[in-house]
Specification:
The complex is a heterodimer of chains A (689) and B (316). Chain A is mainly β and 689 residues long. Chain A has two helices and 65 strands. In chain A, the strands form ten sheets. In chain A, strands 21-22-27-30-33-36-39-42-45-48-51-54-57-60-63 form a 15-stranded parallel sheet, with helices on one face. A 14-stranded parallel sheet of chain A has the order 24-29-32-35-38-41-44-47-50-53-56-59-62-65. Chain A has a nine-stranded parallel sheet with strand order 40-43-46-49-52-55-58-61-64. In chain A, strand 1 (43-47) and strand 2 (52-58) form a beta hairpin. Chain A is globular, with a radius of gyration of 28 Å. With 316 residues, chain B is α/β, with parallel strands linked by helices. In chain B, 11% of the residues lie in helices and 13% in strands. Chain B contains four helices and 13 strands. In chain B, a hairpin with a 6-residue loop joins strand 1 and strand 2. Chain B is elongated. Classes of the chains: A mainly beta (689), B alpha/beta (316). Chains A and B meet through helix 1, strand 15 and strand 19 of A and helix 1 and strand 2 of B.
């Protein structure tokens, strides 16, 4: 139940925001949202006394996928995908012999031999990334892994003692299985170390407890699992408490975890004739599976490269004689390391008025087009169709020419636990033309617009034209232009992300045109090192609220560190800044107004710390000659929690260009220490210590 | 874990923080009071190899978090876990009260006697496991342990009553079967997280508490006691998948079985026999037939209500 002292060396990318923020921000990241709808989460048990297996197709519906007898006395069950079709197969092991049932008929289809020494414990997982489980033997603290790809056996070590129980699962969500041993409640987990454990945790520990691992919260990382006489309990490595429980089985049963739902249309690259989409005779292209699908079908895609353009039409589209599109498909690659979709030209996947899809387990690229494109709804290229929608999870989109994911019209994308990197000339994700929306969580957006850097484009996430965008827990870094841009009447909710090392601003709101009604909430983010491009002679900002804003903007609980110009630039709009940390930026905050702005600038700054900024903590400038636009700012206050702290500013704690701003700094409303100068003499008399 | 990594990165100077002397002393006392020299594993506890008996030279301060079975917070400044199951601990548990950051405590399957020390100051405690020992005395007050998730003291020699569990809103499992507990089962009202409550094979009396409203409850086991009164309504216990009440003195009619008890069939493992229940007013309920594995559950093959829940368990 507790996290041990030894900690994983490298958190997964989507977790870095919360990792990095945890000490500096005094904020706690929100609990993981509910799993995206449509996942298939299976659990089962093997009853050694009768050699019966019971496994649900879906833990939620409790419909059996497996209910039969397999194996004989003394067998040990092992569940894994031994044939690379995406469905878990049941194997039974005894004395080095593995009998594998690959088609759920309780008859052995494949016999393999590996292990066999007394005390050997069988396991299986895909270590070599080919989509097919490798056989694993745990023998007295050592792990023997036989690659399904090469047939070679490798060895790893994690220590071990008598009575230890081995577990293998992807605990850190990097796509590779990790080794673990369970020792009467103590879990020793090896995620990155060459030998030994780098994570120690405690969960379970009673006499009948059996360890298991299963991604119960569907966050891409296996959770610790304890099976206790029919009750399953799950705990995330990230937290101290159980995250769920489940009732299935009885005393003496052995827990099984895997995807047992075999009701699917199967695809495998290069599959020979005949092809009918069954597991035995899969189609060779995803397009053929789409033709054969009906609303709600599951399409399981095996290892290989698919050089095709996949178009998911909606039911309103007759895309071939007698063929209409469909909704709610689950297109599930067996593993994103093993399944790539890279067309010879054009977009990889296009949705035309088609909704409710789930895309999972792919690597997607396009040398001449885009990765995934959603079309439908007003202002899209197909306005007569409904907006498209899709959940994209555990997908790696990379090396596209244009957008990695483009959402248009009234379409919606839900992107989780994915990477959208290295669009050559455009953004990782784009929302435009209509009122598109997206929810983007726990993903990475990096190096978009990477070539040529001089093209002036390439954002991590780009929202415009009345877009609605929720961005939580992502890592957005090293993009050629902005990390996040939201313009033209868009609504942005940006929480608990890492936004770092982007060449221009980390985040910019407004800027497409005058009188931009865009609004934003920027909460709990780590915004660091942005403005890598110093070609303009001054650098860029962590967060910029541009001069064309009309709307309101909330900036709470963020940490702005080492941005090359301002941590925060406020050029217009009504902006509330509360409980942030501004450290080592050129300037903590610049608040500005001039007559080019679309609105007056109104700023409040409470409860924030400004530490070691190279110039001013806060710099206030109503530009000389400004006649129309006013600048009103309140910095600090005497009410509890309102005071700001200015420490070690290179120029001033609070600096001003002139005294025409309506600047209020209440007496005693801020603290100052070790600044070169606390309040610049150019500030109006209403700003005092 | 997350917070810890961030702090490790940002505050490397704190990496070598030591636990407070009071916490170290608890560990030393635990070793001395339970024959640490005879433990199966005691690596890193002693400055050199631990002697088989007697007080050793303990390892230097600052090393405690590396002692076998000891876990600490990420800064190494407090003990958060003691995990010494099956480690041949012989003796009595010492005072644990200085361990106010302790979250996980397991001494399952040892040879501990004496009583369970006071736990009230362990306000962070989430798990307490002490099954399969020879502990005596009564279960201490748990009222202050608002973080408690699991409490398991099965197969000991504990007497006294079950402490008041009110307010333990995080309590997930309370397991105290196979002891000598007396008195009645306390109210489970308000225990919104409770899933597993097992107090079978004790000397409990009085009536059953209301379990019908415990919507989280998965398992309720109170067989082989001296419990009287009737079985409470169960229709609202929509998660319940096992209820074992056999070998008590329950009377009255049998309430309807919630569907969770018998769907699907393979898990049929509940028991109501033997109890002097009013069978005349208890319908030949298909749900109970399925849940207990007998048709009808109260008669075949044990006519005249002499069914034996031991046989029921054999069916599992």
């Amino acid at each position: 139940m507790t996290g041990g002292r030894a900690i994983a060396a490298q958190p997964s990318l989507w977790r870095r925001a919360t990792f990095l923020c945890a000490c500096a921000c005094a904020f706690v990241a929100p609990a993981l949202a509910a799993p995206p709808a449509g996942y298939l989460l299976s659990v089962g048990i093997y009853r050694p006394s009768t050699n019966h297996v019971y496994a649900y197709a879906d833990a939620g519906t409790r419909v059996f996928a497996l209910e039969g007898t397999y194996g004989s006395s003394g067998d040990t069950p092992v569940v894994a995908d031994f044939d690379g079709n995406g469905v878990a197969d049941l194997a039974v092991y005894k004395a080095g012999s593995w009998n594998i049932d690959t088609n759920q008929d309780y008859v052995s289809d494949k016999v393999m031999n590996f292990g066999g020494v007394a005390g050997d414990v069988p396991l299986a997982a895909d270590f070599d990334g080919d989509g097919i489980a490798d056989l694993v033997i745990y023998r007295a603290g050592g792990w023997l892994i036989r690659s399904s790809k090469t047939g070679q056996t490798s060895q790893r070590s994690l220590g071990g003692a008598s009575g230890d129980k081995p577990v293998v699962a992807d605990f850190d969500g990097d796509g590779f299985p990790d080794l673990a041993i369970y020792r009467a409640g103590t879990w020793l987990i090896q995620t990155h170390a060459a030998t030994g454990a780098d994570i120690v945790d405690h969960f379970g520990g009673l006499a009948h407890d059996q360890p298991c691992a299963l991604d119960w919260d569907q966050d891409g990382r296996a959770d610790l699992c304890i099976y206790r006489d029919g009750i399953w309990r799950f705990k995330s490595l990230a937290g101290p408490d159980p995250i769920g429980s489940y009732a299935l089985g009885g005393s003496g049963d052995i827990p099984l975890a895997g995807v047992f739902n075999a009701g699917a249309i199967y695809v495998k690259a290069g599959a020979p004739l005949p092809r009918d989409g069954t597991a035995a005779h899969p189609f060779d292209t995803i397009g053929k599976a789409f033709d054969a699908a009906t609303n709600g079908s599951i399409i399981r895609v095996g290892p290989g490269n698919y050089a095709e353009n996949v178009v998911l039409f909606g039911p309103a589209v007759q895309y071939a004689p007698g063929k209409f599109g469909k909704n709610n498909l689950k297109v599930l690659g067996v593993d994103r390391r093993a399944v790539s979709l890279t067309p010879a030209s054009g977009d990889a996947i296009v949705l035309q008025g088609s909704t409710g899809h789930l895309l999972q387990g792919f690597t997607i690229g396009s040398t001449t087009g885009r990765g995934v494109v959603l079309i439908g709804g007003p202002a899209s290229v197909s306005p007569s169709l409904p907006g498209s929608s899709i959940t994209i999870a555990f997908v790696h989109v990379a090396e596209t020419l244009s957008y990695g994911v483009l959402i248009t019209g009234s379409s919606h994308a839900d992107i989780r636990y994915s990477q959208v990197n290295r669009s050559r000339i455009k953004s990782g994700v784009g929302l435009q033309s209509g009122s598109p929306s997206a929810t983007i969580m726990y993903s990475e957006f990096a190096q978009n617009g990477y070539t040529p850097q001089s093209n002036g484009d390439g954002n991590g996430i780009e929202a415009q034209q009345s877009s609605t965008l929720t961005i939580v827990g992502n890592n957005i870094h090293d993009n050629n232009r902005f990390g996040i841009i939201g313009i033209i009447d868009s609504d942005l909710d940006i929480e608990y992300n890492t936004v770092a090392q982007n060449r221009s601003n980390g985040i910019i709101v407004c800027g497409g045109s005058a009188n931009d009604t865009s609004t934003s909430k920027t909460i709990g983010n780590w915004i660091a090192g942005n403005g890598v491009d110093l070609g303009n002679g001054q650098g860029y900002n962590g967060l910029e609220i541009y001069g064309t804003c009309l709307g309101t903007h909330t900036v709470t609980g963020n940490t702005f560190v080492g941005n090359s110009l301002n941590g925060l630039f406020v050029g217009s709009g009504t902006v509330s800044v509360t409980n942030n940390a501004f450290d080592n930026n050129a300037i903590g905050i610049t608040v500005y107004a001039d007559d080019n702005g679309s609105s007056n600038t109104n700023l409040t700054v409470f409860g924030s710390t400004f530490t070691n900024n190279l110039r001013d903590g806060v710099f206030v400038q109503r530009a000389a000659g400004t006649a129309v636009r006013s600048l009103t700012a309140t910095i600090g206050g005497t009410q509890p929690g309102a005071a700001n702290a200015f420490i070690g500013s290179g120029f001033h704690g609070i600096g001003c260009a002139n005294n025409t701003a309506l600047l209020t700094c209440p007496s005693g409303g801020n603290s100052f220490s070790a600044n070169n100068n606390d309040i610049e003499s150019l500030c109006p008399a209403t700003c005092v210590k | 874990m997350r917070l810890g990594l961030a702090c490790l990165l940002l505050l490397p100077s704190l990496l070598h923080a030591a636990i407070p002397a009071s916490e170290r002393q608890v560990l030393v006392n635990l070793y001395l009071a339970t024959n640490g020299g005879g433990w199966k594993q005691n690596s890193n506890w002693c400055a050199s190899t631990c002697p088989a008996s007697g007080a050793p030279a303990f390892a230097a301060g600052g090393t405690e978090c590396n002692w076998y079975g000891i876990g600490c917070d990420v800064l190494g400044s407090h003990v958060t876990a003691i995990a010494l199951p099956g480690n041949n601990l012989i003796g009595a548990l010492p005072d644990l009260s200085p361990l106010n950051k302790l979250q996980y405590f397991s001494v399952v399957s040892n040879k501990l006697g004496g009583s369970i020390p006071a736990l009230s100051s362990l306000v962070q405690l989430r798990v307490f496991y002490a099954d399969n020992n020879a502990l005596t005395g009564s279960i201490p007050s748990l009222a202050a342990l608002t973080q408690l998730r699991e409490f398991s003291v099965q197969a000991n020699k504990l007497g006294g009553t079950i402490p008041n569990l009110a307010g333990l809103v995080n309590l997930n499992s309370f397991l105290a079967s196979r002891n000598r507990l007396t008195g009645s089962i306390p109210s489970l009202s308000g225990l919104s997280s409770l899933q597993d409550f097992e107090v079978g094979n004790n000397l409990l009396s009085g009536s059953l508490p209301a379990v019908g409203s415990a919507t989280s409850l998965l398992k309720f086991v109170a067989d082989h006691n001296e419990i009287t009164g009737s079985i409470p309504a169960l229709s609202a216990a929509t998660s319940l998948f096992q209820i074992s009440l056999g070998a008590n003195h329950l009377t009255g009619s049998v309430p309807a079985a919630p569907a969770s008890l018998y769907t699907p069939l393979p898990w049929a493992r509940s028991s109501l026999c033997a109890n002097p229940l009013n069978l005349a007013s208890s319908a030949n309920d298909a749900g109970w037939n399925a849940a207990t594995g007998f048709t009808p559950w109260w008669a075949t093959p044990y006519a005249s209500n002499t069914c034996d829940d031991i046989m029921t368990e054999t069916f599992e």
